[in-house]
């Protein structure tokens, strides 16, 4: 009986200490995010991680303990030992893979495995997302070594067990008590509410929160809940929500009403710059010399100093810019391909007034259901044949030089007025494209990032220069913006507003001279784009309820972004960041009374957009 209790304890704490070591590895890998953070605050990640570590250890040890208990009936202990050894090896391999993906995803997305990440796995290009400095290998080697060491300890100390000589009647009560204790641990107590990963969140530093979240527990919790409805946000009841909606949608009488162009229906071109952060754009206060061409182009247009991405993925920026729909904190509207026709879309609006609509890409347009989304909006043409014939390709698609040439040739064949969109690719993580190596940072990934951005910068300038020779250019407004920012080179936390600061410039031959070489200091983001366009071509923008025109209504426009279960909102001198896991404000800057309104507005957008998303999923 004592042997059974000892064996059970050893099996349980084998897993517990394994998970603690993996926690330590996570903290060490992302220690750069924890500069000047008090040591005690860092150590609290292990205290807050106890409950999930206890739970995961219970899940993984219950089978080993039950195998040992079965030796009461099966006297062939060697066979049972071999079964248990095989189980442990498989479990260690699974944990190694889960944690490898976790570490890679955190570096890329600022989160561990979630439903959004599992959805991306269906796309062939998705593995590019979790590459890093050494690719997948860097994390895998470290975590595999940890698992190897623990496997060695198991073979030396825990593999063998003595056959149980006690009678079943005497041992079963002990076994039952052990199972009860394991159930208590895996459930997180005997209260009405079972344990969840919210128990691990305690800090405004996201790396400490995610270090405390047990990767094994989180993965199987996500898998088991994939089909369940998303966690609702209940900041307001239905009456309050509708009242705030009416207030939010009020048209301000002091809003200006002027046009960027004298042309009634100018051509509109969207150019999304892959992963461009304001941190590498000199005219936005970033490091100088990386985007000299963009810095020069600002003299030919309106530069927006306070423009922020809505999320951290291309399709989030695309959907916000075309549908005026904000990125969701935890769900992924681009999954709902059979509901896309319910979303408002600037493509639909422009098509009704005679615009030819098109999309150009040097990559795979099916990634993240982009092509389905565009087709559902009624786009006239998706230009995608460059991918199969490109002379130079990165993991994500054709180099930007060829993509811009492809765009230039395509635009020349379209009838006017047209609305065309292009997304660059070469500066996509992990920036492995063979471009001139001008920047030599100590961090090789940061250097590659700067070099690919510098390359795309030159391609963009070459495109604008060549475009001026074509007849359509004088009738065109060109919106140049990033699809989202990047953690490089300054490694801002994912809940830091600076992480979402991106460039936005409106230029083109149709832009009135009075707007050239001007700066707009209003706060805005991808969500503001539909309203700007609707104002320009005299369309009703009411269907884009979250869109506020930062040009004609600068006092009421705002910058809104979401990260994993949180949001940030900036307007004028105020700024707030709310974390739903912590259920509190983690950042506030500016007037307290103003920030109360901003917080209420952000909560409204988070809750009401989630409600709308659910309504759009209802087939009509």
Strand order of the largest sheet: 4-3-5-1-6-7-2-8
Q: Provide the domain count.
A: 2
- Sheet bearing the most strands, described? 8 strands, mixed
CA-based gyration radius: 27 Å
Instruction: Quote the beta fraction.
Output: 5-15%
How does the helix and strand content classify structurally?
alpha/beta
Euclidean distance between termini CA atoms: 64 Å
Rounded mean pLDDT score = 87
- What is the CATH architecture annotation of the largest domain? 3-Layer(aba) Sandwich
Query: Approximately how much helix is present in the residues?
Result: 40-55%
* Low-confidence sequence ranges: none
State the name of the first-level CATH class of the largest domain. Answer: Alpha Beta
Per DSSP E runs of 2 or more residues, the count of β-strands stands at 12
List keywords for this structure.
eight-stranded mixed beta sheet, 620 residues, 2 domains, four-stranded antiparallel beta sheet, Alkaline Phosphatase, subunit A
């Amino acid at each position: 009986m004592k042997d059974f209790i000892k064996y059970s304890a050893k099996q349980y704490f084998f897993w517990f200490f394994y998970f603690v070591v993996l926690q330590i590895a996570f903290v060490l890998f992302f220690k750069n995010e924890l500069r000047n953070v008090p040591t005690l605050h860092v150590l609290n990640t292990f205290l807050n991680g106890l409950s999930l570590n206890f739970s995961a250890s219970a899940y993984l040890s219950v089978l080993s303990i039950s195998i040992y208990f079965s030796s009461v009936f099966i006297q062939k202990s060697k066979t049972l030992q071999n079964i248990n050894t095989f189980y442990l090896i498989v479990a260690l391999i699974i944990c190694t893979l889960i944690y490898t993906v976790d570490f890679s995803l955190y570096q890329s997305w600022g989160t561990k495995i979630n439903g959004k990440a599992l959805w991306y796995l269906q796309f062939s290009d998705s593995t590019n997302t979790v590459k890093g400095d050494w690719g997948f290998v860097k994390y895998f080697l470290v975590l595999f070594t940890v698992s190897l060491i623990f496997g060695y300890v198991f073979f030396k100390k825990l593999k063998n067990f003595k056959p149980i000589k006690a009678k079943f009647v005497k041992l079963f009560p002990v076994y039952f008590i052990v199972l009860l204790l394991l159930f208590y641990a895996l459930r997180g107590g005997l209260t009405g509410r079972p344990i969840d990963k919210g128990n691990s969140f305690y800090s405004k530093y996201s790396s400490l929160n995610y270090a405390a979240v047990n990767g094994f527990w989180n993965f199987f919790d996500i898998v088991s809940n994939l089909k369940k409805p998303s966690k609702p946000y209940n900041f307001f009841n239905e009456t309050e929500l509708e009242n705030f909606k009416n207030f939010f949608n009020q048209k301000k009488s002091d809003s200006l009403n002027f046009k960027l162009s004298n042309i009634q229906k100018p051509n509109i071109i969207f150019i999304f710059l892959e992963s461009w952060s304001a941190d590498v754009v000199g005219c936005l206060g970033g490091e100088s010399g990386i985007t000299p061409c963009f810095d020069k182009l600002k003299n030919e247009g309106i530069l927006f100093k306070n423009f922020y991405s809505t999320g951290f993925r291309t399709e989030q920026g695309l959907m916000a810019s075309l549908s005026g729909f904000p990125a969701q904190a935890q769900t992924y509207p681009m999954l709902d391909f059979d509901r896309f026709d319910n979303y408002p879309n600037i493509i639909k609006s422009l098509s009704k007034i005679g615009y030819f609509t098109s999309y150009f890409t040097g990559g795979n347009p099916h990634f993240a259901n982009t092509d389905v989304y565009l087709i559902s909006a009624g786009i006239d043409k998706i230009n995608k044949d460059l991918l199969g014939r490109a002379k130079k390709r990165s993991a994500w698609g054709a180099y930007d030089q060829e993509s811009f040439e492809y765009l230039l040739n395509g635009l020349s064949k379209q009838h006017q007025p047209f609305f065309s969109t292009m997304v660059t690719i070469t500066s996509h993580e992990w920036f492995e494209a063979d471009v001139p190596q001008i920047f030599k940072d100590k961090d090789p990934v940061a250097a590659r990032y700067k070099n690919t951005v510098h390359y795309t910068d030159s391609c963009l300038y070459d495109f604008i220069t060549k475009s001026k020779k074509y007849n359509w250019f004088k009738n065109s407004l060109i919106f140049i913006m990033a699809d989202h920012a990047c953690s490089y080179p300054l490694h801002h936390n994912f809940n830091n507003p600076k992480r979402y600061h991106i460039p936005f410039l409106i230029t083109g031959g149709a832009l009135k001279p009075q707007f050239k070489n001007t700066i707009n200091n209003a706060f805005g983001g991808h969500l503001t784009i539909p309203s700007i366009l609707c104002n320009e071509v005299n369309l009703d923008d009411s269907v884009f309820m979250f869109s506020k025109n930062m040009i004609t209504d600068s006092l009421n426009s705002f910058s809104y972004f979401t990260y994993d279960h949180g949001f940030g909102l900036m307007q004028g001198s105020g700024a707030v960041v709310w974390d739903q896991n912590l259920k509190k404000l983690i950042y506030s800057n500016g007037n307290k009374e103003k920030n109360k309104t901003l917080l209420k507005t952000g909560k409204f957008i988070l809750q009401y957009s989630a409600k709308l998303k659910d309504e759009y999923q209802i087939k009509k």
